[in-house]
Amino acid sequence: FFFKCVLQPTECFLSRPEEKQESTVKAKRRKKKKISDVLQKSAPKPAVPEDLQKLLTQHFGENRSVIELEELQLSDSCFLPANDLTHSFSSYLKEICPKWAKLRRTHKEKKSVVMLVLCSSALRSLELIKSMTAFKGDCRVLKLFAKHIKIKEQMNMLEKGVFHIGVGTPGRVKALVEQDALCLNSTKYMILDWNWRDQKLRRMMDIPEVLYKHLCMLYLCSLLLLVVLRPWSVKFSFC
Question: What is the pLDDT of residue 201?
Answer without folding.
Answer: 79
